[in-house]
Amino acid sequence: MQTKSTKSLYLVPYYAWIALFVIAPIALVTYYSFFDINGHFTIENYKNFFTSVYLTLTISSFWYAFLITLFSLIIAYPTAYWLTKTKHKQLWLLLIIIPSWINLLLKTYAFIGIFGLYGPINAFLNVFGIGGKQILFTDFSFIFVSVYIFIPFMILPIFNALDKLNPSFIDASRDLGASSWATFTKVIFPLTINGVKAGIQAVFIPSLSLFMITRLIAGNKVITLGTAIEQQFLVTQNWGMGSTIAVFLIIFMVIIMIITGQRDKGATSHGKNK
After folding, report:
1. Which of 61, 99, 171, 179 could pair with 224 as two cysteines, CB 3.0-4.6 Å apart?
2. How far apart are CA 148 and CA 115, in angstroms?
């Protein structure tokens, strides 16, 4: 039988990991946020964040993250629902997961070729006499590529929630005369809301800090908090302002995690008894 001291010993690697790779980086970023570009202690960075420039940047970041999350959810939910009804659902799920294993930079460069003026999309448009269009370096290309990259992370938690849903609830709803829409809105969606919340966390939070896709696909026409942090650290060398933006980004992420926090009541399990 394990003693209390033995169990505590097992937790040492966990606490060490949290201290070194979670608490220490956050503390370091917070520390640097109180220094200006010349290394002098200041709180001007926090005052500057609440100016119109950075507030507009923050609103823009949330707007694009919202759009990416919304489109991912619209596509992912019916896809996940369809997967649960297919015969070889694990195989189809694997085919959806495989693209997420490919290097992000490689996928981004692939879309540069696809959306380029001499890419296959414009070649297809030329066949029908529409002519070449500037698809790359637009909001459309940025959102499209972002949704493509993040959609597996939206599908997986929703699929798991739908797959665990007790089918007797759906049968009961239909036996009571509920329509398909009523069954979905009153039974299926509420019982799989935890999967939706997990998907929103997995997509919305990283969407706030995108920077590579904004540079390569949107041509820096889309500026997010992640892009601003990259520019402050690598271009202007203002580590203080970059750290300040990172502090607020961390705060936003924590708030989103709290809002979308899950409470698993175990009501969706197959083995749940009445």
Report:
1. 61
2. 14
Taken in order 205, 209, 213, 219, is the CA torsion positive or negative? positive
Distances 267 to 161, 165, 173 between C-alpha atoms, Å: 11, 8, 15
SS3 of residue 35 by DSSP: strand
The DSSP code for 101 is G
Residue 268 burial (CB count, 10 A) = 21
**At 219, phi and psi to the nearest 5?**
60, 35
What's the CA gap between 217 and 142, in Å, rounded? 6
Segment 59-115, tens digit of pLDDT: 999 999 999 999 999 999 999 999 998 888 889 989 998 988 888 889 999 999 999
Amino acid at 19: A
**Domains in the chain with CATH codes:** 53-259 (1.10.3720.10)
